[in-house]
Task: structure prediction
Amino acid sequence: QTVRTRDGWLYIMCMMDKFWEALLPIIGREVLAEDPRFATGVLRGQNRAALTPLLDEAFAGKTTADWIDVLSGVLPVGPVYDVTQALENPFVEQVGMIATVPHPENPDLKLLANPLKIDGQRPAQQVCAPMGADNDEVLGRN
Result:
């Protein structure tokens, strides 16, 4: 689930109860372990609407970077980036997740590449046709 931090968003993966149990003391919400609505992963999912504001409140006290420092190595966690942040992230570039695609208005348009690989290669990317360019063909007006 994503949670709101002081300056952004964080993705926390508590897919196993051991991660949930490890998280609660770190965020100072041990009392949630006693709440029957959140006793198991299934129940936490069913009661997400009640749980989300409680988690957002807990995480609002620190920045995303602060939480990464505190939680890394304890449970799976990662920052949620906007497109600009993702394109500026050295790791994203290092793993080949940035594609440069020619565009009529921007010949060096940088996009996030397709995350999937087929036979070790990411599928090629291209810009779509301008809006309305294919109307006649799609509408059968040839």
Summary: The first helix runs from residue 17 to 27. The chain has a mean pLDDT of 91.
